[in-house]
Design a protein that fits this description.
Blueprint lengths: L9 H9 L7 H11 L4 E3 L7 H15 L4 E5 L3 H15 L6 E4 L5 H9 L4 E4 L1 H10 L7 E6 L2 H6 L3 H10 L5 E5 L1
Helix pairs in contact: 2-3, 3-4, 6-8
This protein binds adenosine monophosphate (AMP).
């Protein structure tokens, strides 16, 4: 099976071509169809097996096909969040979806500027995401996708209260993707 046969939005196909991704990796082959059916998943895969694109491809495809829905990706570390948003921006390619990176230790002014542009895809770490929720500079009332990347590590690092806060804020009807 190639990505072309899966009939994604043309912007994402362009993004895949630009990254020279032709065929899904095993975790992508298993996860992408289930996510596209609208179901929740728990996926375990080793690093380097293509798990970022396993959730990134269906998520960006969904955002390109809808108008106001948003997605939130939480990662345990700033470094991982930075890598994830780079992959997301490559997948979006020329598509009209703005993104924001909300990580600790980074300029709040820069993040506030990003948030004023109404991004539909937010990637960040739990602490800073909660700061924005408290300031009301991040609203999750249109969030239909929640991705917890390296979720086991986030729990080990003590982020349970911040994750619970996010879960209480997102609409009841949303899709949850847990990766570890
Ligand atoms: P990850 O496990 O998400 O860190 O991805 C590991 C590496 O595999 C990254 O450099 C990706 O760009 C690359 N990759 C992910 N999916 C594919 C694919 N379908 N075809 C080729 N390379 C890929």
């Amino acid at each position: 099976m190639t990505f072309k046969e899966l009939n994604f939005h043309s912007d994402i196909q362009e993004g895949l071509d630009a990254m020279y991704f032709e065929k899904p990796t095993p975790v992508q082959e298993l996860a992408i169809p289930v996510i596209m059916e609208g179901r929740d998943i728990i996926a375990c895969a080793q690093t380097g097996t293509g798990k970022t694109a396993a959730f990134g491809i269906p998520l960006v495809n969904y955002l390109l096909k809808t108008k106001k829905e948003t997605a939130l990706v939480m990662t345990p570390t700033r470094e991982l969040a930075t890598q994830v948003i780079q992959t997301m921006n490559s997948l979006i390619g020329r598509g009209n979806i703005r993104t924001a990176l909300l990580i600790g230790g980074d300029s709040m002014q820069k993040q506030l500027k990003q948030m004023r542009r109404n991004p539909r895809l937010i990637v960040g770490t739990p602490g800073r995401i909660n700061d924005h929720l408290k300031r009301k500079t991040l609203r999750l009332n249109n969030t239909s996708f929640l991705v917890l990347d390296e979720s086991d590590r986030m729990l080990d690092m003590g982020f349970t209260p911040q994750i619970n806060q996010v879960l209480q804020t997102v609409p009841k009807k949303h899709q949850t993707l847990l990766f570890s």
